[in-house]
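Hi R.,

Here's the chain you asked about this morning:
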Amino acid sequence: MNQAYAKWMYEWENRLAFKSTNRVVRPFEWGEEWARAWPVAKDFPKNGHDPESYLLALNRRIMDSSEEFFSYRTPSDFRLEEGNLLKFTSAVETPYPENNIVHGQWFPPRNGRGARGSFAKKTAVIVLPHFNAQVTQHRALAAGMAKLGMAAVRISLPYHDYRMPAELERADYAVSSNIGRTLDATRQAVIDVRSVADWLSQQGYERIGLCGTSLGSCYAYLASAHDDRFHVNVFNHCSTYFADVVWEGLSTQHIRQGIESHISLERLRPLWEAVSPPAYAQKYADKNKRSLFIYALYDTTFPRHLSEQVIAGAKEWKLDHKAVALPCGHYTEGETPFKFMAGYHIVGFLKRNL
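And the predicted structure, written out as tokens:
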């Protein structure tokens, strides 16, 4: 490792990471009330158990019955507004009306001459942005896919951009020091992604890929592990356990601060295990998908050692995969020239394999 380059990169990462000054340390909450709407909890009453024991038991049940946890009824109100904004009611209802309407920015496919192509009609990609992504981010990536003949839907994650409750400045309810709400937001994200796939199937798309970045990468993995329709998957920034990323990541230290005075990482990890990719490694491997794992050598948000555990796991599970390490960090991947490197690998992989 070039020490001068590494020092420069880490300094750049830190400047970008702390450019935002509106992070809020929120109080710790067990949030066990969020479980009331989960199918796996309906015959699993709390019966006076303390919140931690209850949520630990629920995590084990979710992992044993994950198909039920991520089950849903296909929405019936899909609609395109303003020509390219897909909207529908989420199959998961939350107390926040804004969050209950899913928004997807639609990029119809075009062939090399700029006209709609017959081949393109059969392939589509669902793009899942990073944590706290702005509404304009990842549009260029989706537009690039469309230009190469792959339809793309850039989905708004729960509690993000169009779906953010009025009292928030950041997507604090998607990942937070509220244990149950974070589980619920993850379940909603997975179900929303699968619902978009329902809409694409209704439009005649036969091969559907996923491209998730950072938090979107976690959501994409969970969705793909539970849905045979996602033939090709790109995990841009990959990591292992949900809790470890929150605990070690530079950009989630405000979340850790709300948690660490109440429970340790060792206690937090099993509370979020049911929404962590390693819990479904066998399920994912059984589906024989094609996967691209991208990670950054100087990442302080998804620490490198956690990403390397993902790559080691892909080899252990004998996944049909490719791994790419970029010479940048988490935030700097969005800067020139690294965003073009990432885009090259992402779009090229999807085009070749879809």
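DSSP finds twelve helices and nine strands in the chain.

Let me know if you need anything else.
M.
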